[in-house]
Amino acid sequence: MANFAELKDGFISNVIVISNDDIDNLPFPESEPVGQAFIASLGISGEWLQTSYNANFRNIYAGIGYTFDASLGEYGEFVAPLPVE
pTM of this prediction? Predict the structure, then answer.
């Protein structure tokens, strides 16, 4: 399965899962634009970034409320929110 996180106003607002068949069974990063096109073909708009459930790329699995920093790592990284004290 391929996981995609919606980046909205600088924060992750949604995470969805699509079939590996829908990304042509490609590895990241080649899979990301294929997945983005598939999501758009469903009529779902927005900026979607691929995230790894096993944290194999982009540092950690993106969750709602996380942010994305494009300046980190080769492909950018998701950043967890700071804990509330």
Answer: 0.95
